[in-house]
Amino acid sequence: MAVLSQIMRRYSVRAYQARSVEPEKLKNVLEAARWAPSARNMQDWRFVVAQDAETRQRLMAAANGQPFVGQAPVVIACCTIQPDYVMRCGQPSGPIDVAIAMDHMTLQAVEEGLGTCWIGSFYEDQVKAVLNIPDPVRVIELLTLGYPAGTPPASKKREPMDGMVSYETWRF
Ligand SMILES: Cc1cc2nc3c(=O)[nH]c(=O)nc-3n(C[C@H](O)[C@H](O)[C@H](O)COP(=O)(O)O)c2cc1C
Question: Right CATH number for 22-150 from 3.30.470.20, 3.90.180.10, 3.40.109.10, 3.20.20.300?
Fold first, then answer.
C-alpha cells in the first residue's frame, strides 16, 4: 500500500525551487535505479548527472527549450550502452531497461520529497554533444530532478481500469 500511495503522489514537476538537491538524496535516487531489473541482468544503463548551471542551460536548449529543464537543479541523461540487443520477443531491451530504472528513480524521488519529469522531447545528437556521450551509446530519456515549486495537481487523468485490463482473454 505504501508503494501504491507513493506511485499516486508522483506527478510531472515542471517548476522547481532554486534549492539544490542534497548529495545523500541524489545518491538514494540513483541507488533506486541501480536495483532495477534488466534483461539478462545486463544493467546496460548509464546515467550522466548534470548539475552545472551552464550545462543545464545547454540541455534545456537541446530539450526544445523547455524552460524547467534549465530550472531543475539536476538533469539526468539516462542512456543505454546496449542499444542493439533485441530480446526473443522482438523488443529491444535497452530502452525498456532504462525506463524501468527511471521509474524507480521517480518513485524514490517522491520518497525524498523531490519531484521529477521525464523528458522525451529532446534532440539526441545535441544532448550527446553537450555531455560528451560517445557512439554507440543512446540517450533514451532525460529526467529532471529537484524540489517542486507550486502545488501538486488536484487530480490526475487516467483511463478506467476496465478499459485497460481484461482477464483470461482479450476483450477490448
Ligand atoms: C516517455 C515520456 C516522455 C515524456 N516527455 C515529456 C517532455 O518532453 N516534456 C514534458 O513536459 N513532459 C514529458 N513527459 C511527461 C508526461 O507528459 C506525463 O507523464 C503525463 O502527462 C502524465 O502526467 P503525470 O506524469 O503528472 O502523471 C513524458 C513522459 C514520458 C513517460
Answer: 3.40.109.10
